[in-house]
Amino acid sequence: MFKKALYISASQFAVRNVLKTTTTGVNSLTPVFSSLSTVKRLASTNSNISSSDAIEKETFVSTDNVVADSKDAFTTTSTNEKKNDIEKKDTPELLEKLDENVHIDSLKDANLLDASIHKALDRQGFRTLTPVQSKAIIPILSQVDSDIITRAKTGTGKTLAFLIPIFQHLVKTRRESQYMVRAIIVAPTRDLAIQIENEIEKVFYKNNYGLQKFETQLLIGGTNLRESIKRMEKKRPNIVVATPGRLKDVLSDERVAKRFFKFVDFKVFDEADTLLEVGFREEMEEISDMLNEINENGLNHIRTLLFSATFNDKVEALSNKLMRKENNTFIDTVDENEPEVQEKVDQHVTITSNLALNILSSLEYIKKNMDTQNSKIIVFCPSTKFTSLYGTLLTKVSEGKFPVYTLHGKLQQNTRTNIVARFKKQDTNNSRGNRNRNSNNTSGGVLVCTDVGARGMDYPNINQVVQVGVPTKLANYIHRIGRTARAGKTGKSMLFLTKAETNFLDALSEIKQVTIENQQKVSSFEDEQIKDVVCKVLAKDIDLTDEAFTTILGFYKGVTKEYRLNFEHLCKDVGLSYTELLRERDIDGDKEEGEENEDKKLYIPQSFVKNVIQVPNRRLVQWFNLGKFVKIEDNGFENKNNRFNNSRGSFNNKFNNRYNQRGSTRYNNSERGSNNRNSDNNYGSSNRNSDNNYGSKYRRKGSGKNPSFHDDY
């Protein structure tokens, strides 16, 4: 709950000058954005009223009762007229147009936007603000003594909504603390932090060289910390864009913190709900406390801007910890009656009978779209290993006709950065990035990724988003499809689900109010050429294949409860699909009559069964290769010997004997864990000398520990 908070609603943004009565009984005139002249007031934190009760009552304000002379009635929350630098007579008239498109000229005329920033935006072609920008920028600029929370759909221009006020503040106070960090922007992923830095370069620096004096510094994991500090010493940045882990590391050094961060005016938390989802709550609270404690202007000086696609109890609790101002403003640009997804996304779902058919059908679908249309597609997969495997499959299926990029959190940072940059530059109207330079097919290309590419990332001209299987979290479905239909454009989403995953659709409808009307079912697959390619690729890199399918089991275990899935049915599907995809096919007709293929089963060790799957072995043995075991209890079996001691004859066929050459420790430990614990998250690769760790043994974090199979981004 917020102290003396204003609730700014969404549908229409007519502005009224409303007599605001605070919890202390003090009256003041404050410009309030309202939906149908509605103001929802949140109770003080000193009150015993619950969060739901606090916003239950609505105050309806008639337009007839609005103060006649709005110019005289307008006041800001700041008592420092010079610092605010706003002409009272112009701002109310501008605010009353928030239900319309706001032109940057209007901001300039109202002295809310400096000429240098106006020049940069105009040259970039940003002449009219998006609805989110207009509803966030003006309160941030005018209510200088308020912290701001903004809820907005993805792809609506949130980045500029905080960058423009930051640059406006830097220009207006350019003579104050010129060589100190004045604004800090915290992003959940390295890739998003890099994108924000690139946006600053593209919009402000390149279009107005005068703004380059306000230097920007990137502080993210996967880079050399000492070199980053040296660059700060040399550049003396005014803006820092960081990930939580690395920023905490820097601030933990008291000498460095006091040298650069004593005069911070803004701290921005972008994608706050994602920051919470990936476990950064403690880091964010510590960062906020450290910045407040060392600030020369006082504990409550720093303004907090929090942007989130969703606003739930966790985000609200976080905001209470981060925000120190007396007045807080919550701006909701999402109509409560509207679904959270972008209306311009054409959503489809294909339901297949099993995982094998899901993989084959999705590969065929992408290939046909790339062959017949000049498309740019993002494909989301549930785990790092499966993403690597699927990228390899799609590359082979594509036959070099379009480029395929693979992105996940196990890649080294420079590799990830290069992949993102190449895919962003890939245009649907040219083929400069096409790997097959002799191909006549011009294509935008395909990016296969984990959820590292789902939140906040802006990839230009995405025609379609494809999801293979259910997402890691229910909210991630919305974030994933938000990569298309951005900036007013249209787009398409295709979700591939197995029959065992269809309960996800019910959860999506009940919790997120998102119903996918366009549904089709697929029960067979006729393209023998794609089947053969898939079989050969899986058999050729059997280590990666086994690891990918094993992580799918762990992934399913993590989402079963949220989506109300039947885990045993999912296990059966994974096991039988593995066998089906690796079944050899007599395409050339050279197999002797009566000769049968030898079915292959996915090997899973008992430690994985006990710690993760937790399904009785008497059922699992039907679908998986569990090695040599003896019955010890009525509820299952247990391995007699560990994997290293098993004899070559302990497996059910000659094909699986190769497993004896590989250790099993990787199954006992989380492939998600990173040895770079000082980074922003687990995004760093545990194999620092390679861009991937496709057959490597995972490092031991603790014998017998239950691995975490949430995607490591």
What name goes with the CATH superfamily of the largest domain? P-loop containing nucleotide triphosphate hydrolases
Total DSSP E strands: 23
- Quickly give the structural class: alpha/beta
The top level CATH class name of the largest domain? Alpha Beta
Strand order of the largest sheet: 5-4-1-12-6-11-10-7-9-8
Describe the largest sheet: 10 strands, mixed
Structure commentary:
It is a single chain. This protein is of the alpha/beta class. It has 2 domains: 5-332, P-loop containing nucleotide triphosphate hydrolases (Rossmann fold, 3-Layer(aba) Sandwich), CATH 3.40.50; 340-588 and 598-713, Rossmann fold. The chain is built from 26 helices and 23 strands. A 10-stranded mixed beta sheet has the order 5-4-1-12-6-11-10-7-9-8, sandwiched between helices. A hairpin with a 2-residue loop joins strand 22 and strand 23. The protein is elongated, with a radius of gyration of 28 Å. The two termini are 31 Å apart. Residues 9-92, 430-442 and 630-713 have low confidence and may be disordered. Residues 139-329 form the Helicase ATP-binding domain. Residues 358-529 form the Helicase C-terminal domain.
